[in-house]
Amino acid sequence: MAKKPARIDRRINVILLESNKYLGEKYEVVKVKPIFAKNVLFPQGIAVLADKDALYAYEKRMQQAQEVKAKKSDGYKAVFDKIASDNGLTFTMTANEKGALYEKIDPAHIVAKIKDLYNVEVEDHLFKMKKKIAAVGDYTIPFQYNGVEKDLSISVKAEVAAAKGKKEETKTEEVVEAAAE
After folding, report:
1. Is the dihedral of CA 127, 132, 136, 138 positive or negative?
2. Residue 134's pLDDT is what?
3. Which residues are bridge partners to 144 per DSSP?
4. pTM recorded for the entire structure
């Protein structure tokens, strides 16, 4: 049997001019398919071809971007160490009797909670959740950014939904009685 020839990597290097959660950070050199670069990245001004001239022109900006990424990494490490020392994040959400949440917790909820408690901006795509949290319990959510890999502990507690339902029923009955009079 004849051996198949090795696949040729036809991707090209481009320099990103803005951050993209699917491709990479600003001023990072990434490989993309030429047709994607030609039809999407170049016309929208998202990237430029990474040839010698462009690499030389963006070299200083790339170094500054690396320094910013290093500072962000240190900041994220400090915040996640602080969260770990506080025994993680605790969410109190409305749930039914079986412990299923009425509103699922996604990375946007986690980012908002960190912003409220620690006054730190974190990008939601850095949390690698396979699916949203839909039930009461304790969870571990992985976080990855530029070499920083932390596990965030999240505790979800139930707020009594039955008591709210009884209050609403009582108010509804009062409104019906008032309308009947």
Report:
1. negative
2. 92
3. 149
4. 0.67
For the beta carbon of residue 16, count every other beta carbon within 10 angstroms: 22
User: What is d(CA 140, CA 162) in angstroms, rounded to the nearest whole number?
Assistant: 28
Condensed to tens digits (0 to 9), the pLDDT of residues 48-65 reads 999 999 999 888 888 988
pLDDT at 170 over 50: no
Q: Where are the domains of the chain?
A: 12-76, 87-166
Query: Dihedrals φ, ψ of 137, to 5°?
Result: 155, -170
pLDDT-wise least confident of 45-49, 90-94, 100-104, 164-168: 164-168
Under CATH, domain 87-166 is a member of which superfamily? Ribosomal protein L9, C-terminal domain (3.10.430.100)
CA-CA distance, 154 to 91, in Å (whole number)? 7
> Which stretches of 35-116 are assigned E, i.e. beta strand?
47-49, 89-95, 100-105
The residues, ordered by sequence, that sit 6+ positions from 154 with a Cβ below 8 Å of its Cβ are 88, 89, 90, 91, 105, 110, 133, 138, 139, 140, 141
Q: Tell me: domain 12-76, CATH 3.30.70.920, correct?
A: no
